[in-house]
Amino acid sequence: MTVEDVFHIRNRGVVATGRVQNGILRVGDTVSVNGGPAVTVDAIEKFRKRLDEATTGENVGVLLKSIDKDQINRGDVITSAGEAPPLDGANVIL
C-alpha cells in the first residue's frame, strides 16, 4: 500500500490512508513501513466503517499504534513484514 496521507489521532495512534495494491490486509497483521521495523495493524476503516480486512483495490485507513507520525510520510510503502519495499517505485504488495 502506498501511503496517501497520515493522521495522528490522540489516544489511538497513527492512521495511514491509501489503496491496497495487492493481497489482503487484516487487523492484527504485522507490516513494515519502507522495510523498517515491524508494526501491527490495530484497525482498518473504510468510509467510517470498521473492517476486519481490506482487499485489493480498496481505499482504507490503517491504524498503527507503535509508530510515530514523523516515521511515516506520504509516498511511503507499507508491505507485509519481512518483504522488501519495491526498488523501482512501483506500488506495494500486501
UniProtKB/TrEMBL annotation:
Q: Which residues form the Translation elongation factor EFTu-like domain?
A: 13-79
Drop me one GO molecular function for this one: translation elongation factor activity
| Entry-linked InterPro entries | EF-Tu_GTPase, EFTu-like_2, Transl_B-barrel_sf
Q: Which UniProt keywords apply?
A: Elongation factor, Protein biosynthesis
Please indicate which superkingdom the organism of origin belongs to.
Bacteria
Q: Name one Pfam family in it.
A: GTP_EFTU_D2
Name of the molecule in the record? Elongation factor Tu
Provenance organism: Mycolicibacterium holsaticum
Q: What is the lineage of its organism?
A: Bacteria, Bacillati, Actinomycetota, Actinomycetes, Mycobacteriales
